[in-house]
Design brief:
The protein is mostly helical. Helix content is 70%, strand content 2%. The protein has a two-stranded parallel sheet.
C-alpha cells in the first residue's frame, strides 16, 4: 500500500511488544504528529490461541462444545491471517521474534501443558474442565486485544485508521461470541462437575449471545432453563 512502508531504522530504539502495544503506539503517534509509527511488532495473541484450541479439542467430551470449538479454531486462524495482512500492509514483519512474543509463547505453553497434564490424569471430565478454563483465559486476552485495536483505530488517521478499522470490523462479533459462549460453557461444566444441575449447551449458546449485556441476561435466565 503506497505510503505505508516504515523505515526500519525508526524502530531500532523502540521496545518490542505484542500487536496491541504496537497498534496503540502507532495510533498515538499518528494522532499527535501524523508521523509514521515508531514501534517494532512482535506476534499477536491470536496466533497462539490456535494452539490453545488445537489442544483443547483433544480434551473435549461434549459433542456440542467440540463443534463450537472447531468453528472457533477456524475463525481464529482467519483472525491471524487478517492481522498478518494488516502488519504486512504497514511494512512490518508479523513473524519477527521479540521479547514480547516470547512472553506470550510462555503463557500459552503453560496453558497447553496444563491441558496435557489433565489428559494424562485419565479422570473423566477433568481435561475438558481445564480446557474450558484455558480457552476462556486465551479468549479474554484476545477479546481485550481486539477491543484495543478498535479503540486505536478511532484515534488513528489516514491509511492506519482504515486498515485497523477494517480488521476490527471483520473480527469484533466473532471475538464477542468466542468469549461469552466459552465462559458460559466453562461455568456450566463446572456446575455439572459439582453434581448440580447444569444448562448444557449454556444459555449464552442457546440465546446466541454476542454482547456483555446479553451474556448477563442469559446467565440470569439460566434458572428457567433447567
Amino acid at each position: 500500500m503506497p505510503g505505508m512502508h516504515f523505515k526500519r531504522r525508526m524502530f531500532r530504539s523502540q521496545p518490542r511488544s505484542n500487536i496491541v502495544a504496537c497498534v496503540l503506539l502507532c495510533s498515538r503517534r499518528n494522532l499527535k504528529t501524523e508521523a509514521e509509527p515508531r514501534a517494532l511488532v512482535a506476534v499477536k495473541k491470536a496466533t497462539q490461541s490456535v494452539q490453545v484450541y488445537t489442544t483443547a479439542l483433544k480434551c473435549v467430551e461434549n459433542d456440542d462444545l467440540k463443534e463450537e470449538w472447531e468453528k472457533y479454531l477456524e475463525q481464529t486462524k482467519n483472525h491471524v491471517t487478517i492481522v498478518k495482512d494488516v502488519l504486512q500492509a504497514m511494512g512490518l514483519d508479523p513473524d519477527e521474534e521479540s521479547p514480547g512474543r516470547q512472553v506470550v509463547r510462555h503463557i500459552v505453553e503453560s496453558l497447553v501443558q496444563a491441558m496435557e497434564m489433565a489428559l494424562k490424569s485419565g479422570e473423566e471430565g477433568t481435561a475438558e474442565l481445564v480446557a474450558a478454563e484455558s480457552v476462556v483465559l486465551a479468549e479474554t486476552k484476545d477479546h481485550l486485544n481486539w477491543h484495543l485495536i478498535g479503540e486505536a483505530a478511532k484515534k488513528s488517521s489516514g491509511e492506519v485508521a482504515k486498515l485497523l478499522s477494517a480488521a476490527h470490523e471483520k473480527v469484533e462479533d466473532e471475538e464477542d461470541e468466542h468469549l461469552y459462549h466459552t465462559t458460559g460453557w466453562a461455568r456450566e461444566l463446572w456446575i455439572k462437575s459439582l453434581g448440580i444441575p447444569a444448562v448444557l449447551p449454556p444459555p449464552e449458546e442457546v440465546k446466541k449471545v454476542e454482547t456483555a449485556i446479553g451474556a448477563a441476561r442469559a446467565q440470569q435466565a439460566r434458572a428457567q432453563m433447567l
